[in-house]
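ok so I'm stuck.
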Amino acid sequence: MRLPGLADPHVHLREPGSEEKEDFYTGTCAALAGGFTALLDMPNNPTPTVSAEALAEKKRLAAAKIVCDVGFNFGATPTNAPVYPAVIPEVAALKAYLGETHGPIVFGSLEGMLSVFQGWNSPKPIMIHAEGPIVAATIGLAALYDRRIHICHLSKADELTLVRAAKERGLKVTCEVAPHHLFLTREDAAPERLGPYGRMSPALQTGRDIDELWQGLADGAVDMIATDHAPHTRAEKESSKPPFGVPGLETAFPLLYREVYRGKAGLTLDRLVELMAIAPRRVFGLPQGDSEIEIDDTEFIISSENLHTKCGWTPFEGQTGRGRVRRVWLRGQLVFEDGRVLASPGSGRVLFSA
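replied:
not stuck anymore, here's the structure
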């Protein structure tokens, strides 16, 4: 079966600064193995992407290593709005953190967000990392300043209710859900199960939340799937202060396609393609129609032994997937086949570059 190449607007490729977890080459190899041909990298590196110089350096490093297309999201701070006019053409979106994350780029209060909404005078979206009541507050700011916002990794039923209401009012709001918030509950983070490997931000939620998110996928309230691919080493995860995040690029499609095959929540293959290929490209201005994947329409067991991500583990170890990616074509070139990356480092394109 052939499908359009997938696109993920929310990944953490970790370079520069945390190459022990992932880098531009290994992360984009993992992307091809999962059927993704376009990614948007997040700005919360140890030295965050909050200046024109940091963005240029990221692009320089990526250009030499990537094997699929990669664009970048710029990081908002309470003081860097004067930089926005120079970087808007160079990025897919602005990212503002109002919740816990990896890296020194978190807003301490909503007051600091005023300069963000005032300064980002662009049709490109402001991506929001927030939970609970803060989601409502940022939707209010979007309405006040007439800005497009994209709510990242929705995890709670109440947050989805807020997004539904905003859309009914005609506000420029889109949202994403990550696979781990669809397949894992807070019980999975218990010490006898995943333990620290189930620690993430936003945290895993309840079965009720999961049911509502699935309904949102099927009925259109949720706009897209984003993996929030956030790899860490095993040593970090097993430390006394395990960081937030899990890898996801190689397991997202097989898990979701398995549920399409089983008829979960009435989700269809056409809807899954919309969620994982068409909508991310449309919302973030990514290339359309330049890639294709071929999947093996059978079940298989997910195993860390077959992963390309540098971190080498998955919270879905031993689970059943369906639709292993066999081949990937990008701009007519076969770049992945039967577990082997055929593309050369640097053959991918850095998006939003002059």
